[in-house]
TrEMBL record:
PROSITE patterns: IG_LIKE. It comes from Poecilia formosa (Amazon molly). Keywords: Disulfide bond, Signal. This is Ig-like domain-containing protein. InterPro entries: Ig-like_dom (IPR007110), Ig-like_dom_sf (IPR036179), Ig-like_fold (IPR013783), Ig_Fc_receptor (IPR050488). One of its GO terms (cellular component) is external side of plasma membrane. One of its GO terms (biological process) is immune response. GO terms for molecular function: transmembrane signaling receptor activity. It comes from the Eukaryota. Residues 12-97 form the Ig-like domain. The keyword Hydrolase does not apply.
């Protein structure tokens, strides 16, 4: 039926603007349902790493409990790198779309608690060469984490799944050739 289609297969597209921001600036989320966003209510979520499941959980953002008729949502005073997602609903009873794919806003913090550097330092890398991710900052112990999507599912994993962690550095296995987002995490989870 058309309702079943709306509930299980429709997936909105989320965009964030800006994708890079100065700490404390505003971020605007926009959620689009194709072919038309008219007639939908939109719900906005923060994507929070759930390390026990190597995935993300989605926490409803304040002010989004009842949804919004507008397909955009403004967040003031965003300070840190964060992931967001959205979904939409309409009708009575309300039929909901799937969550959108998570999108991230990256903070240009001039004094980050952690830093990640890549060796060799260039944009393109090949499977024939060794690539190392190095963590720096005020921590005695670091973990390197990675986020990637497989068949529209989001997963978080640590270096031991796709590389070798030595001290504060992770050397990626040469047979690992996936697009992913990487970051450093201290022993306190920061």
């Amino acid at each position: 039926s058309i309702n079943r289609f709306l509930k299980t297969e429709l997936k909105p597209v989320l965009t964030v603007s800006p994708s890079w921001l100065n700490p404390g600036a505003s971020v605007t989320l926009s959620c689009e349902v194709k072919p038309s966003s008219a007639g939908w209510r939109f719900y906005w979520y923060k994507a929070v790493p759930d390390l026990s499941k190597n995935n993300y959980r989605y926490d409803l953002l304040p002010g989004s409990i009842n949804g919004s008729v507008e397909n955009s949502f403004k967040i003031d005073g965003q300070k840190q790198t964060a992931g967001f997602t959205c979904k939409a609903g309409r009708g009575n009873p309300e039929y909901l779309t799937d969550y959108s794919e998570p999108q991230f806003v990256w903070s240009e913090d001039p004094h980050p608690a952690a830093s990640l550097s890549v060796s060799p330092d260039r944009e393109q890398h090949f499977t024939s060469e060794s690539v190392t991710l190095n963590c720096g900052g005020n921590s005695a112990e670091w973990r390197v984490k990675g986020f990637r999507e497989i068949n529209q599912e989001s997963f978080v994993s640590d270096c031991s799944n796709w590389g070798n962690m030595t001290g504060s550095s992770c050397t990626i296995n040469r047979d690992w050739c996936h697009k992913a987002v990487y970051w450093c995490e201290s022993e306190t989870g920061e």
